[in-house]
């Protein structure tokens, strides 16, 4: 039995050219499902948001959700797509337990939006990702496999199905094959999904929360020798974080290079990305369009958006995230590389909202890109889910500006906020972290520091005022960082003058 020897990433991209493609699914934030009146609230009790239509019961007829169509058109316009003047839904036939009708109402050869693009910028260089299509469909239900160690069907003792999600409007955004990226393919894939998420969030049509499945990405990757035809692609399914999009591309480049180096052949298949290892494992062989037996949906009328309506929607589009970042960069007084770091961290809106809540640009950026970003990286969560809100960060900075806490104490307060102990002012009071500036309370600590450091005190008496820093440090240690450093210095100099 032979074992595939994996090359390093640098070695793989030195000898092979990667081609990537991304299929991104966005759950729309409509109040009701795409073809019925069932609610779409996340987290409801299993199978409580269903009806004969979304369960596919005999005789039930669908009616298209206008809000879902409008949201899809707005997404297409924001992605620079052409909007079809006439299109229709189709039936995509396949059987999975979480597909109650045994077919998915989707679009095949007549999508609602086509031929768009998204520009992403990395380190001052712009990459254009071309969009092949943006089409509208319905989501499936959700299977839960229990009794096993992995949460997957293999090894499980039973499987449960929740149909609440079945029928929720879903938009699929499909790129054209992206070539010529070389070693930067993984980071550009991540940058594209990041930009896509920001664009959709700015439209207000979805919360695009990857951890809840409202934004999911299928990552296609293939390799070929320079000058050869494109290789066979694999598809990593339902990758659910920005970091994992990058890791999935990198992992597949290394794996496929190892297979090709060993004389093996890449099989067209879906693969499952493993968060713990950063690798992919085989899923199933990949179907083709003919396997799905597409045909026009006979129970829905064609969609023919009025050109005047489309023009109104286009005129009402919000500011593009890229334009907004350029404007905010000037307002905040930061460099292009700093703004790129903010964007990569997913912190643009968080910092903006913190400023609107009363913080300075420098203060808001300090906390989100410093302490909070560190915590997000350590716990492996998106920055917006780290446990603090923009309003709380603004309140924290206000406490610092007012002198009620210093930066050291503020980090302890923030720790309490993230732990769910309340707003910063509450945590400060509960934990007893407020700065002590009362001269009477501090004088004893100052006298003790002077008595314990006679050599330092002598230097200060001789006019070497810089030596006061050592005594300030001693008092801060005694008071566990709660003393007001400015007041302490003044007391020291007054005592030794």
Molecular structure report:
Heterotrimer of A, B and C subunits. This is Aspartyl/glutamyl-tRNA(Asn/Gln) amidotransferase subunit B. Residues 349-496 form the Asn/Gln amidotransferase domain. This protein is an alpha+beta fold and 497 residues long. The protein has three domains: 9-309, no CATH class; 319-431, no CATH class; 439-496, Arc Repressor Mutant, subunit A, CATH 1.10.10. The protein has helices at 9-15, 66-78, 185-203, 242-261, 307-315, 321-332, 336-344, 348-356, 361-369, 371-379, 390-401, 407-418, 424-431, 439-452, 454-461, 468-478, 485-496; strands at 17-27, 82-83, 90-93, 103-106, 113-122, 125-138, 142-146, 158-162, 169-175, 215-224, 234-239, 269-273, 280-285, 295-296. Helix 9 (361-369) runs parallel beside helix 10 (371-379) and helix 11 (390-401) packs antiparallel against helix 12 (407-418).
């Amino acid at each position: 039995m032979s074992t595939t020897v994996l090359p390093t990433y640098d070695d793989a991209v030195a000898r092979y050219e990667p081609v990537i493609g991304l299929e991104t699914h966005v759950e729309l934030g409509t109040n009701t499902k795409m073809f019925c009146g069932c609610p779409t609230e996340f987290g409801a009790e299993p199978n409580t948001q269903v009806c004969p239509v979304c369960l596919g019961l005999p005789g039930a007829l669908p009616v298209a959700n206008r809000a879902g169509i409008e949201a899809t058109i707005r997404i297409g316009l924001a992605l620079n797509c052409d909007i079809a003047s006439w299109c229709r839904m189709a039936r995509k036939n396949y059987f999975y337990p979480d597909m109650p009708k045994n077919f998915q109402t989707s679009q095949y050869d007549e999508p609602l939006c086509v031929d768009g693009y998204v520009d992403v910028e990395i380190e001052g260089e712009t990459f254009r990702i071309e969009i092949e299509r943006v089409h509208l469909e319905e989501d499936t239900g959700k299977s839960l496999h229990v009794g096993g160690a992995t949460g997957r069907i293999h090894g499980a003792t039973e499987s449960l199905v929740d149909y609440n999600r079945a029928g929720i409007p879903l938009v699929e955004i499909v790129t054209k094959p992206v070539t010529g990226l070389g070693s930067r393919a993984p980071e550009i894939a991540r940058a594209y999904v990041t930009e896509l998420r920001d664009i959709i969030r700015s439209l207000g049509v979805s919360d695009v929360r990857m951890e809840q499945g409202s934004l999911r990405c299928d990552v296609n990757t293939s390799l070929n020798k320079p000058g050869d035809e494109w290789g066979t692609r694999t598809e990593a399914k339902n990758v659910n974080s920005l970091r994992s999009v990058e890791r999935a591309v990198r992992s597949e480049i290394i794996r496929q290079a190892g297979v090709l180096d060993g004389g093996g052949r890449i099989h067209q298949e879906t693969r499952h990305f493993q968060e713990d290892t950063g690798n992919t494992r085989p899923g199933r062989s990949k179907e083709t369009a003919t396997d799905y037996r597409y045909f026009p949906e006979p129970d829905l009328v064609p969609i023919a958006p009025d050109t005047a309506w489309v023009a109104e929607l286009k005129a009402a589009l919000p500011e593009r995230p890229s334009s907004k970042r350029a404007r905010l960069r000037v307002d905040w007084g930061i460099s292009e590389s700093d703004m790129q770091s903010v964007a990569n961290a997913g912190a643009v809106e968080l910092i903006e909202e913190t400023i609107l809540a009363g913080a300075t640009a420098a203060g808001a950026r300090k906390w989100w890109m410093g302490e909070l970003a560190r915590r997000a990286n350590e716990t492996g969560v998106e920055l917006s889910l780290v446990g603090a809100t923009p309003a709380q960060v603004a309140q924290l900075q206000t406490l610092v500006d007012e002198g009620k806490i210093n930066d050291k104490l503020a980090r302890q307060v923030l720790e309490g906020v993230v732990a769910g102990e309340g707003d910063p002012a509450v945590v400060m009071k509960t934990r007893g972290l407020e700065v002590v500036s009362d001269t009477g309370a501090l004088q004893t600590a100052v006298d003790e520091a002077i008595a314990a450091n006679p050599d330092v005190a002598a230097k200060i008496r001789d006019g070497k005022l810089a030596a006061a820093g050592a005594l300030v440090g001693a008092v801060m240690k005694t008071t566990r960082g709660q003393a007001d450093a400015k007041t302490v210095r003044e007391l020291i100099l007054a005592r030794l003058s």
